[in-house]
Amino acid sequence: xxxxxxxxxxxxxxxxxxxxxxxxxxxxxxxxxxxxxxxxxxxxxxxxxxxxxxxxxxxxxxxxxxxxxxxxxxxxxxxxxxxxxxxxxxxxxxxxxxxxxxxxxxxxxxxxxxxxxxxxxxxxxxxxxxxxxxxxxxxxxxxxxxxxxxxxxxxxxxxxxxxxxxxxxxxxxxxxxxxxxxxxxxxxxxxxxxxxxxxxxxxxxxxxxxxxxxxxxxxxxxxxxxxxxxxxxxxxxxxxxxxxxxxxxxxxxxxxxxxxxxxxxxxxxxxxxxxxxxxxxxxxxxxxxxxxxxxxxxxxxxxxxxxxxxxxxxxxxxxxxxxxxxxxxxxxxxxxxxxxxxxxxxxxxxxxxxxxxxxxxxxxxxxxxxxxxxxxxxxxxxxxxxxxxxxxxxxxxxxxxxxxxxxxxxxxxxxxxxxxxxxxxxxxxxxxxxxxxxxxxxxxxxxxxxxxxxxxx
Length: 457
Ligand SMILES: Nc1nc2c(ncn2[C@@H]2O[C@H](COP(=O)(O)OP(=O)(O)OP(=O)(O)O)[C@@H](O)[C@H]2O)c(=O)[nH]1
Ligand SMILES: [Mg+2]
Fold this sequence. Notes:
Elements: E1 10-13, E2 20-28, H1 32-39, E3 40-42, E4 56-62, E5 69-78, E6 89-96, H2 98-110, E7 114-115, H3 120-127, H4 133-144, H5 148-158, H6 161-186, H7 196-221, E8 223-228, H8 235-243, E9 261-267, E10 270-276, H9 286-301, E11 304-310, H10 317-326, E12 331-336, E13 355-357, H11 366-377, H12 393-414, H13 419-437, H14 443-450
Parallel strand pairs: 1-7, 8-10, 8-11, 11-12, 12-13
Antiparallel strand pairs: 1-2, 2-6, 3-4, 4-5, 5-6, 9-10
The structure holds guanosine-5'-triphosphate and magnesium ion.
């Protein structure tokens, strides 16, 4: 539940509930310091009155009911507006254990603070204009980032890079909207203006941002990659090689892998979520059949297929079946067991996918395979070496909506449609962009976004 009031004081444990060096209880609101004064006794001064902002004070967290010391602690007060939430914020740093931290939190609640909801500190920062919505979402992306590239994307977003681009676009559209509305209201009195060049330029910028969002989502969410092939071609061996670990069981017995197995591999900052699957073949064995059914499903759900063939024997019927299942999807083919020296020609199976000769036994061809996987993920987008400006599917969807409206507005102008209808599309685009930065975000949307945060953030 998201709460929009700003005038009470909230409290929560802001660090994970486990054992660690330190743990922090955080307060935000007009009474933050007053509450803290009741539960914290400074060692070298009589009270917290007149305490300088952003300065650490040493002392003890105490239970105001009986005066018992709860923990040795440090306290810092960050006065409004120079704090995370834009309100008075107090952080009490105790030792990192659930019991002392809960005791300090309980004491704060007993002194009138309210337990914070999920993401409520960040929501307050948003409501106070310290962060816009895209920046608030970046905070969550930083916490959940899985690779350094995803982290850099999120840090840039927190710094306002995406928001700046979106605001620039929105301002351009608002100018167009202002002209349209003036011309609807005052007709001939408004000097005529050709909106098309501006709308086309804004459309191009939107299109670029959309591409950035698509690229960014790869870093943020990873690429689901299914390793598929008939039994015994070396799928699990290739998985182990790529992971540089003996993760999957490898044996000379066909049908070794029966269940799907998932591991994340980081290649050049791109998280590949690899799924090793059961070899695809006709089987009498019930467990094996179920495994094969799962592999078919893995292929259907994957963003990318890594197809493995055994290059030491000629292509067979089962290899052709695998190729049929994968056909039309993004795929990379690894022709394995190359060190045996009798590599047969698999070029006719999946001719549109790149084929790489590898040996899971010696490691030969594996670096080329990794490179090829990354290139296939970014097919058509290579050369973009800088980290993407956007990475969030919600932003991608909003950009798509905005782009469609701008396209429609352009078509309408070209077709000589009346200004008031053009204005509806331009306003739609303005709205879609406003949903990214939060100018036009519904309560429902805010609830969905901040509900994903943890308590204390
Ligand atoms: N010579 C050679 N043998 C390999 C190579 N890669 C795998 N093998 C062998 O091929 C056999 C099957 O390997 P796995 O990795 O279990 O094959 P799989 O495709 O996962 O097999 P299933 O799980 O049964 O579908 C094992 O005996 C491996 O040692 C290779 O590059 N060269
Ligand atoms: Mg296997």
